[in-house]
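**Sequence with structure:**
===
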Amino acid sequence: MYWKKITIETIPDSLDALETLLWNLGAVSVTLTDSEDKPIFETATGENPLWSNVDVCGLFEQDVDHEQLEGQIRESGYKVLFTEELGDRRWELEWLSRFHPMQFGRHLWVVPDGQTVEDPDAVVVDLDPGLAFGTGTHATTRLCLEWLDSQELSGKRVIDYGSGSGILGIAALRLGADKVWAVDNNPQALNATRDNGLKNNVGHKLSVCSPDALDLDGADFDGADVVIANILAQPLIELSGLLVSLLKKDGDLLLSGIMVSQQSWVESAYAGKVSFVHQRHDDGWTCLQARK
């Protein structure tokens, strides 16, 4: 089957109405891209920001009258950029064309669904990120995965705060951690983490929850051995008190998602609470290891 893709330019305030219009016109999928290629680095906790100008792509079955569709979209006040015909593909798996098995450190591998690695010593995380952030392709995640591979995690309890796809918490479990709490305020991320936990046979050791539902098994919990937060500088600063409070004495705190220029800013927010013991850099990003 061939498909018709119609790309429309809009702004965030008009996005919901445009999405509703496309679904009502029979779209089989609706996707968003940045029309100006401007990255978003800093967000407040709980926010889901959009670019100032958004290209919205509606995918329709081949037999639709695209001229009529374009007319209806324009009549609703939107600017149609272009229409194109696409060949048949499994669009829900299109991300796999850009995601291949990747090694982190000596033993840890992240492998997309349906692929394998031949390394007999590989510790494999089988991953389908779904709609959540985290495949290991970004420097901030790579730095955390490499650190995890270098640690002795057997029997340890880990909190992954801002878990995304669950990649870091699941990697910790595959490397020997005894228990992981994966925390995220995005329901799509929580669903992806649960699914990936079951896929990797670690679901029984994985607790998945939103920040306000975090339950640390009662009063006998004296803190996690490891707390990981791969977020961004501003939320890391805002959450400094909470993240340190979740950590046991002599436990390790791993902070990632920090641009090199922001490192001192983040460190100052944790001054007097932890001691920074190591740092890693990759592609302009910093990952900080601290100890309580």
Notes: The chain has two domains: 3-88, 99-291. The longest strand covers residues 247-259.
